[in-house]
Amino acid sequence: MHAYFGQVWLVRLVLQRALAAIYLIAFIAVERQFPALLGEHGLLPVPRFLAGRGFWDAPSLFHWGYSDRRLRVVAWSGIILAALVLLGIPQRGPIWLPVLVWLLMWALYLSLVNVGQTFFAFGWESMLLEAGFFAAFLGPSWMQASLIPVLALRWMLFRTELGAGLIKLRHDECWRNLTCLEFHYETQPLPNPLSRAFHRLPKSAHRFSVAASHFVQVVAPWGLFLPQPIASISGALAILQQLLLIVSGNYSWLNWITVALGFAAFSDATLGVHNSLRGAPIPAAYLWVLVALALATVAASIQPALNLFSRRQKMNYNYNPFHFVNTYGAFGSVTRVRYEVVLEATDEVVLTRATPWKEYHCKAKPGDPARRPPQVAPYHLRLDWLLWFLPFSVEVYQRGIFVPRHERWFVELVHKLLLCDAATLALFREAPFRAERRPAYVRALYYKYRFTTREEQRQTGAWWHRELLGEYLPPLSLRTFESRHGAAEWR
Fold this sequence. Notes:
This protein is α+β, with helices and mostly antiparallel strands and 491 residues long. It has two domains: 2-308, no CATH class; 338-490, no CATH class. The chain contains 20 helices and eight strands. It has helices at 2-5, 9-38, 46-50, 68-86, 96-113, 123-135, 147-171, 173-176, 181-187, 195-199, 203-219, 230-248, 254-262, 284-300, 302-308, 382-389, 408-419, 422-425, 454-460, 478-483, and strands at residues 338-346, 358-359, 361-362, 395-397, 400-402, 428-430, 441-451, 464-476. The strands form three sheets. A four-stranded antiparallel beta sheet has the order 2-1-7-8. A two-stranded antiparallel sheet has the order 3-6. It has a two-stranded antiparallel sheet with strand order 4-5. A hairpin with a 2-residue loop joins β4 (395-397) and β5 (400-402). α4 (68-86) packs antiparallel against α5 (96-113).
């Protein structure tokens, strides 16, 4: 096998350090955001979610009791373990030590994802879990590197790339007629400072980019299992595309973990290191563990493989509660128009047309038209992402909008803003009211956004132009909220 795929001692080192860095960022995001979103007094409290659910429905350490203190113990344990792996410390120990550390990180993060509900329902959460599980078997640095876990990660890269390519071709006509990027940079969840420049590229550049994307995601992945250097070329193409996505938008660690997986396609020789068969031989007992891993991966891959070739292909689907060998895909459809829900508050008790309202400014989601979109990835701002999804259920007409229902977490968010809950306010970049001065009302307006033209930019300096379309949520006071808290429209 080594003659066909090449040696992977350096590849193993890169994979371990890169995945550890992403785990570190993920656990930091958990420590900072989880209590406000899902804690004891969060928007979707974990204890309420776990009530009536068995362990095998959602495997998690929190079945034995949840508290925000325990959550922070889990988060800080993950931060410390990820930092140790990033420094290469467990890899210097006995063979069982890096295995144990990685499996602990995987179990801790699995415990979070399985109770995270909609705030953790992103494909890259499962990607991190699956990659972390396979990384557990890469082995210590003093031992020869096995191809089995590296090939498992390469198989994961294949499913990620091909799944994303096929879901695009099957689900949205604009991917087939090469026009999706005429909208995507403007309507993507969290644009970054360069997104407007990418949006302004000529249509010919957009069409070439879509065609190139189809080649990288549908054709090139088949080369991942061919001899070197073909496999490395396929991996390099995937990495190059992900780097372009990184500089054009904020997608949490989705692109970064795909870059890390891209290195699984390389060999040490293609990375410039030769004669790398170094270290002690792999013990026979550990070889049997790796064989068992390979067999389990093959068995678990049957359904995800069939899904790739199904006309009803699923996107970001888990076939088991342990997130082991999943199906992936992103942006199967692209929105043509950007709509935003903007939260506002006032401290005036009597509402009139002249009532001044002040906005809550999110950390990354477009709000203030004059603000430049920030660069936040690979950090994950979960509230900003969930707010981006809200407009998908709204019906827009010439004379206004129709909101069929409000998400439970959003109503709870408004309640927290009325209470000036400190943990919730910390999820925003800027809040107009604090505990010492509560708002009397909170409302949500519905806007249509677009990037400014060059002429508009010169005249106003603004990044966005927005048009008010209607009221997503009417003004709500703490009194009216509490009187209707059990009503069906709020639940």
